[in-house]
Design goal:
InterPro entries: DUF6115. This protein has 154 residues and is an all-alpha fold. The protein is built from five helices and no strands. The protein starts with a helix and ends with a helix.
């Protein structure tokens, strides 16, 4: 592999890691906001329950009903926000999947050396050929020849 392929691989790997951590951070942020909203809604529901218990006249009942309708609207808005956030998270997951898929397909293309070339490189190296001689003989870049030799244990 050449230096450019390694740099490209590292850059794309870094980009994938950045996307992954960005998604995690975004997901935690959304979860914390939703948790805070749930706590607030629970407090509001408790207050409504207490007020219903204490007040029995019609005016207070009407006021409570209005408050309940406001709370219901708030709950609906929160549900809509949650749906939007879920859609956004799914879009990010799909984008990350497509980037991973493209990275995997490009990883296969990085090396032009097949198994028979690797075996020929190893045999020539064992027979005393230098890296440069093997490179000329097989018409494979010296860097790739050196990489194959380094991965073999002699």
């Amino acid at each position: 592999m050449g230096k450019i392929e390694i740099i490209m691989f590292l850059g794309l790997s870094g980009f994938i890691l950045f996307l992954f951590f960005y998604m995690l951070k975004r997901d935690k942020n959304v979860d914390s906001k939703l948790a805070a909203m749930e706590l607030a809604l629970e407090d509001i529901n408790q207050e409504v329950y207490k007020l219903k218990k204490e007040l029995n006249n019609k005016d207070t009942q009407r006021m409570l009903e209005e408050m309940e309708s406001v709370i219901e609207k708030l709950v609906e808005n929160i549900k809509k926000m949650e749906e939007k956030n879920i859609k956004y998270i799914k879009e990010l997951e799909n984008k990350l999947f497509s980037v991973e898929h493209s990275m995997k397909s490009k990883m296969v293309d990085f090396s032009n050396i097949n198994k028979t070339d690797e075996q020929r490189i190893i045999n020539l190296y064992k027979n005393g050929y230098s890296i440069e001689e093997i490179s000329r003989e097989l018409r494979i870049p010296a860097g790739e020849v050196e990489l194959v030799i380094k991965f073999q244990s002699f």
